[in-house]
Amino acid sequence: MFVSLPIADEPADPGKPDQALPLWLPMDISLESNLAEWTKDLREHQREHVPFATALALTWTANDMKAEHARLLPLVFDRPTRFTMNSLQATPATKQRQRSSVFFRESNTHKYGRHYLMPQVQGGTRPHKRFEYWLIRKGIMASDEFAVPARGSKLDSFGNISSGTIVQILSQLEAGPDATQWQTARSKKRAGPSRSVYFVAPDNAGWKRGIWRRSGKRIEPVLLFLKNIRYEQRYAFFEISRQVAVARLPQNFRDALARALASASSKASRTNLPDF
Asked: In 133-276, where do the E strands start and end?
C-alpha cells in the first residue's frame, strides 16, 4: 500500500492523446511498516475495514498534495496559465487498488510528448512545442534547435508568443498540418502591402537564424533558433509531494479509520434494532 508520487502509474504512450504524461520518477511511500503499528490494537472485526480506510486516507492525501501544488505554483511561476493549473489532477485509491496519484495531465500530445513542466522539475532541456515540431518536420528548424521569442514577438498575458502569431507563421511557411488554411489569395489581396510577411532568415547572410517578419519597410526577428537550451530546476514537485504525504498521511488514516468504524457501528446498531 503506497501513495504513488509518479505522475502516472505507467509510462505514457505519446500516441494516446488523453493519457496523462508522466513526470516519471519512481517515488512511492510505503505504508506497510506504519500500517502494522497503526492497526495493532484493532479487534478482528475492525480489521476488515482497514482496506477502505486506507483507500480513503490515500485519496485524501493525494488531494492534499494537489491543493499544496495549486497553492505553490503561482508563487514559483510567473502567471501560470489556466491550462497548467487545471491540468493538475489527483486520482483516488480504491479498496482493490491501494494507490493514489497526483499528476499534470496534457492532452493532444505528439511524438515529442514529454511534459513541458519536466525541465522545471528535473532541470535540463525542454521538450519541443507543437509548433516547433511542425517547423522541424518542414525542415525549417533543426531537431536540436528551439524557437525562442525575439523582439518582434507579440506575447500574451502569460508571456508566451500569441497563438495567432503562431498560426500566421505556420500558414505562411506552409508548415502546419493544414498549412494554408488561413492564407488565401483573397486574404492576401485584402491585407494589401501592409500585410505582415514571415520568412526564414537566409543562412550565411549575417542574419540571426530564425523567423523574421516584414511589415511595410520594417523587418524584425520574431523567433530565433537556438541550441543547447537548458533549464535549472525550479520546482521540487516530488519533494513537495513527499513532504505533504509524510505530514498528512498518518492523520488522514486515523480520521479515515474512525469514519469507517463509526459507519460500521451505526450500521450494526440499525441492524440490531428490535422488531416492534
From this structure: 145-149, 197-200, 210-215, 218-227
Beta carbons within 10 angstroms of residue 156's beta carbon: 13
Cβ distance 212 to 172 under 8 Å? no
Task: Break the chain into its structural domains and give their ranges.
Answer: 2-112+232-271, 128-227
- HSE-up of residue 31 (Cα within 13 Å, Cβ side): 24
DSSP of 25-65 = ---EEE-HHHHHHHTTT--HHHHTTHHHHHHHHHHHHHHHH
Rounded CA separation 276/272 (Å): 12
Give residue 7's Cα distance to chain centre: 9
Average predicted confidence (pLDDT) for the chain: 76
Question: What grid cell was written down for 4?
Answer: 504513488
> How remote is the C-alpha of 106 from its chain's centroid?
5
Count other C-beta atoms under 10 Å from residue 122's C-beta.
Answer: 15
- Per DSSP, helices labelled H in 173-276 are 185-191, 237-271
Residue 120 above 60 pLDDT?
Answer: yes
Q: If you average pLDDT over residues 55-69, what whole number do you get?
A: 93
Confidence of residue 56 (pLDDT cuts 50, 70, 90): very high
Kindly give, in sequence order, each residue whose CB lies less than 8 Å from that of residue 203, ignoring residues fewer than 6 positions away.
209
